[in-house]
Amino acid sequence: MDLENQKRIKQLTEEYGAENIIVVLGAAEGELSGLAAETVTVGDPTYAGCLTGVSLGLGVYHAVEPSFKAVCKPDVYEEQIGMMEMILDVEDITNEMTSVREEHSKYNK
Amino acid sequence: MAKAVLKAAAYSLIHTPNFLENLGTTQTTTSPDSEYIKSLKENLRTYEEVINYLPNQVYIGNLHPDTLKKYERPFCTAEYKAGKRYGKFGEIMPEDEFILLIKYSDTFNLVLLEEEFLAQTLIKYENHPLKTDDEIKQLTGKGSKIADIEAELKNDAIGIYFDAKLVGCVKKAHDIDENLSSHVMIENLIVKASAGVCLKHLIAQDNVDFEKIGYVIECSEEACGDMNQRGGGNFAKAIAEIAGLKNAGGCDVRGFCAAPTHSLVHAAALVEAGIYEQVVVVAGGASAKLGMNGRDHVKKGYPILEDVLGTFAVLVTKDDGVSPVIRTDIIGTHTVGTGSSPQIVTKSLVEEPLKRNDLHISDVDKFSVEMQNPDLTSLAGAGDVPLANYKMIAALAVMNKEIERNEIMDFAEKHGLVGWAPTQGHIPSGVPYCGFLIDDLTSDTNINRAMIVGKGSLFLGRMTNLFDGISVVIERNTGSSQEATVSKEEVKQLIAEAMKEFAATLLGK
User: Fold this and answer.
1) pLDDT at residue B504 greater than cutoff 90
2) In 3-state terms, what secondary structure has residue B280?
3) DSSP code of B140?
């Protein structure tokens, strides 16, 4: 995950509390989504950013996951994400995200 | 108003394993004690390996992008040995010769090269088909003692290495100004020198007359200036100068990765408006991005594949009746109010300009999007970027009921290309296809209309969270506009002849 994004997520979590934060990802691949999800839960697996060794345990979802889609207004979802949902490997992304969430998220899972 | 056409394009790569190690930000920001840095040299490719890397041969025009479909991925595992240094679009230059050209590009005596290295490399460079007398004259006998170079390193100069050996340095250009530090100066000189290599290949092409080029737009991602004007510019004129474009003015256009397509549109507008008859868009390479995903490549058991600087130059001229026409009336613009979801971005850049001109998405035969070589991104977990773009465009065609959902991959295959460009930011964005586009749209193919799409991530500059993008359609030249011009002349002539005849008749009477 981009180093600056790590910093912003860390700051927002300190300001609002981990229980009040949900991270929504838009990465195009399951593998990349998993890495980003790990970063905001158990810590940066690439040891590059400020979340290295920092376990925020945040709730983290991908924008094409059915559980995220279910809480969005259908017309807004169709306009903003419908196209990407059509072409991304939703199953792979959902599996990757579910596994990281179940193992490492402490909040909003 | 004269139409603008895409007349010529050049592309070159520079193999730079030593700059990768010393200037690539991934390497310079990683601990020297890390396994990645300790084993870096073992994971670098040789010049021969770089020459025989299929995407590189596509980049310089020796292979068509469609050739890549025949090979397994990653392409770095292909047994291909027919690579050549020179191609119809340019060349893959070795690092030692490029170091010479960095010195040639230096007008402020900032670059020192060790005398033996300089003399030996100059002998090699004398065989270069595009070498100039001025280059040889300016470089001959201009070497320095290694002791002097080592002394400069103690005074904040930055080392230049070849084969892991110190062969020179770039001095800082000011005592206290960090915008003129040795690090900034070497990055900028690399932009200038690498763009110069490519521009020379462009003007060496048969159908290009360098004396007629009136303006140069440079669109890389670096900034040159001092502490009072950090991005003052003007790379364009500096590059035009070393390439000998004595009749050209110019300036820089910036817009992250979208800058080349912005520049192409600017160039077409300048030509259509009649301000200049011929405009070049050129960009040098980004040394900071060398080895950007190197850690991931090595982790997956492959060599560091981002080991080349990418450069390009395209020439836009007024209509010649043959070259592909830049349709400045079919331009997609990502505006401030557009929004930034991929869906909205794709709509604004692809669907909107086509709809406005009564065209469908499938009326575009080829889309040139972010043409990154998929080896470089897939091995770093970021997937196949061009394919992802094609799938997005196809999905939009599904939403518009032009194709069925199960035809998305067929659409991507038919209207897309396999990526081949190095991940040098602005270099892979939209413009890599321009060279092949000229071939495809001027020969007997089924390709009559292409769309160049440039996108940029502006958040990186921390000035705005807005996304950016611009697209433009380029079409096969029907020759009609030139015919129209000729007809006008003919009309004038006919009138003159009729007047003469009438006068003769009167006299005869």
Assistant:
1) no
2) strand
3) T
CB contact under 8 A, A84 and B342: yes
Q: Does B343 touch chain A (CB under 8 A)?
A: yes
pLDDT tens per residue, range B101-128 = 999 999 999 999 999 999 999 999 999 9
Token pair, residue B160, equals: 């230049």
| Contact yes or no for B383 and A83 at CB 8 A | no
Distance from CA of A108 to the nearest CA of B (A): 24
Residues of B in contact with A35 (CB under 8 A): 381
Above 50 in pLDDT, residue B484?
no
Domain ranges of chain B: 11-203+284-312, 325-485
- Candidates A25, A87, A90: best to mutate against B (most CBs of B within 10 A) is A87
pLDDT by residue (tens digit) across B70-103?
999 999 999 999 999 999 999 999 999 999 999 9
What mean pLDDT is predicted for residues A55-63?
97
Selection from B75, B78, B79 nearest residue B378 by Cα = B75
Q: Under an 8 A CB cutoff, do A87 and B394 touch?
A: yes
Helix, strand, coil percentages, rounded to 5, for chain A: 55, 5, 40
Q: Closest residue of A to B412, CA-based?
A: A87
Listed residue (B120, B70, B105) closest to B239, CA to CA: B105
pLDDT tens for B245-292 read 999 999 999 999 999 999 999 999 999 999 999 999 999 999 999 999
Contacts of A72 in chain B (CB under 8 A): none
How confident is the model over B191-201, as pLDDT tens digits? 999 999 999 99
Contact criterion met (CB < 8 Å) for A82 and B399: yes
Q: Which of A28, A80, A82 sits opposite B388 (nearest CB)?
A: A28
pLDDT at A4: 87
Does the CB of B493 have a partner CB in chain A at under 8 Å? no
How is residue B164 written in tokens? 């892991």
Mean pLDDT within B396-418: 96
Distance (Å, whole) CA B448 – CA B324: 9
Contacts 24+ apart (CB under 8 A), B171-176: B171/B110, B171/B111, B171/B112, B172/B110, B173/B108, B173/B110, B174/B226, B174/B227
Chain-chain contact of B381 with A35 (C-beta, under 8 angstroms): yes
Q: Is the pLDDT of residue B1 over 80?
A: no
**Chain A contact present for B403, CB below 8 A:** no
- Calpha distance B62→B85 (Å, rounded): 10
- Residues of chain A with Cβ-Cβ distance to B382 below 8 Å are 28-29, 32
| A contacts of B343 (beta carbons < 8 Å) | 79-84
* Separation of first and last alpha carbons in chain A: 21
In this structure, what DSSP letter does residue B429 have?
A: B
Question: Touching check for B383 and chain A: CB below 8 Å?
Answer: yes
Is this complex scored with an ipTM above 0.85?
no
| Spatial distance between the Cα atoms of A27 and A69, rounded to a whole number of angstroms | 16
Task: Check pLDDT > 80 for residue B431.
Answer: yes
- Cα A82 from chain centre: 18
Query: Measured between CB atoms, which of B295, B342, B381 is closest to A29?
Result: B381
pLDDT at position B500: 78
pLDDT of B493 above 80: no
SS3 B505: helix
Per-domain boundaries in chain A: 3-104
The pTM is what?
0.91
